[in-house]
Queue: 2 jobs
Job 1
Amino acid sequence: MFLFKKIMGALLSPLPLCLLAGFAGLVLLWFTARQHTGKVLVTAGIGMIFVFSCESVATVMLRPLESKYSAPETLPDVDYIVVLGGGRVVDARFPTISQLGSASRTRFLEGVRIYHAIKRAELIFTGKDIAGPMGKLAVDIGIPEADIHVFPEPKDTKDEARYVKELVGRDPFLLVTSASHMYRAVMLFEKQGTRPVPFPTGHLCKDAPGVTPGDFFPDAMVLHKAERAVYEYLGIVWAKLRGQI
């Protein structure tokens, strides 16, 4: 079921979905008499790539997720800071910091910053294949091993919530993850009976002064925003269908 979820999530992301429509249209145009349907599919594929790559569209999709929670103005008195891993190790031959994707690096830095600000809380790193390098990097920069807990077993956020609960129980803790992922993460953790205090980071929607022509032109980095939004919305739907939230 986990593999099925990942495959479907990948296929329904904006770029694969647009390319799939385009390729299907080309097949019809080249090898069948269904020319009209082929033209429609190719046009739809190209059109969707253009739409998803526009800043104004991607922001409308992603902002509702990123604005669900804000970081607390005053850090609460907690015993644990839970940092969720994002993505997987790129290549173990590289230095530890290079093994972390951009999302994991941002979450890691935020977690460490909060750790130094609170001074008494312990760090929990979770996520299959990524928690280990995050824990190692924390040690490398001088954080005592006694203050670090690593859970490399969880394959997804639901599993991360279950593992964290075994350690923290009903005590409140700071939950650090990407702003786009926070809404789903909080629901999954609360479903397990835990008490997360959201601390979102890595915001992708940032207000710029005025409207520029670039807001309406395709951009590969903007397409990433749309993909993040679709990924999270699909994750929420899946979790609700499975009774996980």
Job 2
Amino acid sequence: MKEVAERAGVAISSVSRVISGHPDVSEAMRARVMKAIEELEFRPDARAQSLRTGSTHTIGFIAADISNPLFAEIATGAEIELRAWNYSMLVANAFNDAELVREQLLLMEHRSVDGLLLSVSDETDPELQAVLQRMPFPITLIDRDVRGFTGSAVLSDHAAGLEEAVACLVSLGHRRIALVNGSEKVRPSRERAATLRRALEHADGVVPELRMGEFSAEYGYAATRELMAKSARPTAVIAGSNQILMGVLQALRDLALTVPDDVSLVSCDDLPVLSFLDPPVSTIARDPLAMGTQAAQLVLEEIDGAAPKSVVLATEFRRTASCGAPAAP
């Protein structure tokens, strides 16, 4: 900074004010200092700044499984918003491992992040609850509901989109509707399962087929093979995630079953590639970029002193030709 001040012909305090974005700096002064900074290729030491300010201007993001395109888009939305406020983001992948999540929480604490965005694969982990309570920074959960957690959360209204999808399938004449769902240890799966039961509770003659398991193609494949081996097999299948959908599609192909002639198909969460399938797959869609943006806003508001709050974002059913009337028995 001393060298920058000498090159610009100003005091070191003026360089400091320019770097910190102080409003009491003339445009002429700012231009001289920035020109000297560029000529000398000066870069402020972020570690030294954090020691002085007590802030690293870094937000952590722990994703349950970053290979899931949904989480990748959420992270993108969060990072765009954080960059607008001069924050950087530190991303960690939990690989759907509850123990690894706890380790990464401690790592984020060690890295002195100012706040954290968190999606876990097991909300029921009692050790997780204890670790969360010890964290010294604001945490925003992403579509999760951890018992005892009092921070912010951005949630999806899974019921609305699923109810629309089920109502559509019932109106088309489907009487056996299967939901190949994810783990009951996370909110989205529990919400979808409860919604399916509730939506069909008073639908005469309509039988729900519910399978709970992992968010993986392997599970989607095995569950679909098992369902289609039944003597009274479902005529419509709802895949509980885009990862599960990959297994469902593979199983239907191996069984020589076509969509929608043999089985109607709906997926929870959209993927750009789904529109290129023949037919394109109907989806219960949400806006992951908006989820990331909202999560970033919530954690920044808490850093700024606001009280924690939860925000619920909409889902909607987008029907395509993958939903049709069931074939005759």
